[in-house]
Amino acid sequence: MVGKVRTMIFLLLPLHHVVNKAQTIKCTGMKPVDIPHEWYQPGEILIGGITTHIHYLIPKLRFKQHPSREIMTIPGLVLKHYQHILALAFAINEINETPSILPNITLGFHIYDSYGDEQMTYRSTLDLLFKSHGFLPNYHCGIQKNVIGVIGGLTSDISLRMAEILGLYKIPQISYGSVESTTRNGIHLSSFYRMVPDESLQYLGIVLLLKHFRWKWVGIITQDGDVGQHFSEALEVELSQNGICSAFADKGEKMALINDELPRFQKYLQMIKPLWAKGDGFIKEFWEQAFDCLITNSSPPEDVDEICTGEERLEDLPEHFFETRMTGRSYNIYKAVYVFAHALHSMYSSRSRSRHMEDRGKLDALIVEAWQLHSVIQRISFNNTAGDEIIFNKNGEIAIGFDITNFVTFPNNSYVRVNIGKLDPQHPPEKMLTIHDEKIQWQSAFTQVPPLSLCNDICYPGSHRKKKEEEKFCCYDCDPCPEGMISNQEDMDSCMTCPIDHIPNKGQNQCIPRILTFLSYRELLGITLALLAIFFSTITALVLGIFIKLRDTPIIKANNRSLTYLLLISLLLCFLCSLLFIGKPKPITCLLRHTAFGIIFSIAISSVLAKTITVVVAFIASKPGSIFRKWVGKRLAYWTVISCSLVQVGICAVWLGTTPPFPDLDMHSLSGEIIVTCNEGSLTMFYCVLGYMGFLAIVSFTVAFLARKLPDSFNEAKFITFSMLVFCSVWLSFVPTYLSTRGKYMVVVEVFSILASCTGLLGCIFSPKCYIILLRPDLNKRELLKMRKHPSIT
Fold it and tell me: What is the pTM of this model?
């Protein structure tokens, strides 16, 4: 019956309510299974501790025999974890020796082992709260234990099993190894605190660390159990979101970071001996396994070779067995003890001030209830003896970062830890991680430091990643960027297009500004065309000067001097108009380029047309009885010029009033160049201007061709025919050439066409006259006119 009752205790705990009448039950007949691994040090106020040092193989209960006959075996100890126990004892003793904290009050502790098992965790937690000489849940039997807080456990699973019991009694619990959130299944564990920073901070820290070394192909090793599985899955998500793949996920023992060195702790460890402390139920098995000897007060068995001398030293153990420097989890325990001590001291001080009586204040402190500490712990803030600030956030998690530790190994399998950096959550994400690369010691086997951890080679700028089928996204091929695109970083998923005013460089790894191109005065082609324009303008001006100076000579008077002057001035301005096409386009030059040239050149052609019509009309009017006699004279010529020119003026006015030309950037016609050009605004109006000039030229050519054989010594019709033939040839070839070129060469074609057509008019019409005027003045006589039958028009 005793065994059945004990089995019921394991299955039904914890119990929530017991009626008052049941509290008269005596604590007898409830002797539990004897598990000797505990350490009790008396004190006026106790701090409990549940560590994971010893691991039992606990068989499943099959209810086929008495539970007490089930065999429990010990597979071994985790030697490193004995430091956790010593850290708690060290912190308690240090506080008792410090007069500034809890003066006149002695702290004690009671440490149990969870044995790494959830059932045993329930049992150890209940033992910690209620066990004296007997065991009964929800009762204090014998001497009352004043446990005001519990430190534990090592893992999230153990910590949460403890929280299920401690939370019922509102006893503060500080976990020293749990990464589980203080919120469980949406319910906040109000009595649960932890010395490990926020879980998400660990994920962020791991990701930042991997990014720092540019590692993208990693393995994940977590502790066994649901928490380890949760950690692995959550970390996989974070890694994936940051472009990092896991090659595998395995389970194993997690290693703690170093969150500081306490030289006093190392001196404390030097005093540890097999029988150094009464009540330490952990040291015997630890010592025997660590030093491979047997502790005995009697004659040793015959099969035992080594007897512990008691003079063995912890500092002689290899680092991978036992570390003399305080590890990360031990430091968490140390800090947790100080949290309870400072919380008690705060309460003790406030009560002493309110009572003004030290003895009464001590009495109040001694009868403090555990639940009263929560409000103090939640707002506690202090610097411990190592200089670290201890403060909890609103979720009961310590608000500190992580130290980054480098394990430096030696040929004898020993190692030391070197602090190489820190993860500080107080800084922005981009500055949260600090790594001192110069402190890192890589293994000599690495041919490259830091070593690469990639599924394949890096895709360098100028290429992009191409996913391999049926493999993780970290495994990929590298393809060159398509033409016209770049990648300027390593391992880019896709190439990108440059801004419209930039182009890829030869390596396709950066965008370079496009070259601004236009017909410039600083280049040879621009200078040549400008000099030609000025040269022909000068020639035209000289011809005009000659014609003005010799205006009374017969050859000049014979063909309407006013039209000749107007034609020469128009040609002069047309040559100068070509200069508007050279240089960087501006709003004013774009407005004047085609419109000014179109109007001026139309006046020139109109003048040529007027001269031709005048010759024809004069010849016809010379016949007896001709009705054209009244048209003979300058009036016909002027009306021809004015009417023909006004049509072009109207076309240009409509153009400027509706869609005027403007400076523009053509970024598509030429690769690598930005063409600075004048946008015509309306191609229709542009071709209307050119078309009208062509129409006038064709009419002039036709009239001049018909009048080329009229009997007149100074008949210009044949010269005008040649000039119009040149003009039409130039501008007929201009259109296809203009449409087939790009950039500044379009402007070159325009300038060349202007210069060629104007030069054709100047040369064909005026070079014969200049020849006679300058080289054959003997032909420039009025008598020559009288030798013809038909009069000249003056």
Answer: 0.53
